[in-house]
Amino acid sequence: MGRKWNNIKEKKASRDADTSRIYAKFGREIYVVAKQGEPDPELNQALKFVVERAKTYSVPKAIIDRAIEKAKGGSEENFDELRYEGFGPNGSMVIVDTLTNNVNRTASEVRAAFGKNGGNMGVSGSVSYMFDATAVIGIEGMSADDVLELLMDADVEVRDILDEEESVIIYAEPDQFHAVQAALKSAGITEFNVAEITMLAQNDLTLSPEAQAQFEKMIDVLDDLEDVQQVHHNVHLDD
């Protein structure tokens, strides 16, 4: 799992480096989820999850509140949730999750990002079968053994708990996300350095330095697209 944590860390680092972009992406996602259900995180578990994840990226409360208020105000702006799958250099696999108000534009931009950087778009299901949806929660201030004991006492099932540098990372089924957080909060944990449901590759791929450079350029282009919310892949990124 350590290699997987390295990829999650790299993704967070790249997003943290561009605050305006990450704020805009979370603002859109919070608006969409709030509009689909109750615009109250305490009454809408999906919204609560997105808000919790936004906090791990240091999204200001004002931006979160503004997106929720926009949903409350009955805005007519609508977005479709679409997933694209494709291949990068040397058969690397990529999943691109988007929120878009213009499907044709988004499909064209994603296809171009693949095609101009050594990759190509695949059909739905062409790579996602090699990934598992996984809840990933990272904390500090407790040991892995203490976290395991806490979660066992709370009758919360997890896939794995690992010490990763100065953090303890918990991997669980997506439907256990809120149960894990609730158990940790009951033990006094109030801050999370990662709290998200992501797609983890079942097997990692290591690329040559040249192929990795091309792959990273492709990922950067995808991440920069306005409609792209998350990009998942199976490449082990060397520091």
Automatic annotation (TrEMBL):
GO MF: DNA binding
Transmembrane spans: none
Name of the protein in question: Probable transcriptional regulatory protein ABIC55_002385
TACO1/YebC-like second and third domain residues: 80-235
Coiled-coil region(s): none
Family: Belongs to the TACO1 family. YeeN subfamily.
Lineage per the UniProt record: Bacteria, Bacillati, Bacillota, Bacilli, Bacillales
One Pfam family from the record: TACO1_YebC_N
Natural source organism: Sporosarcina psychrophila
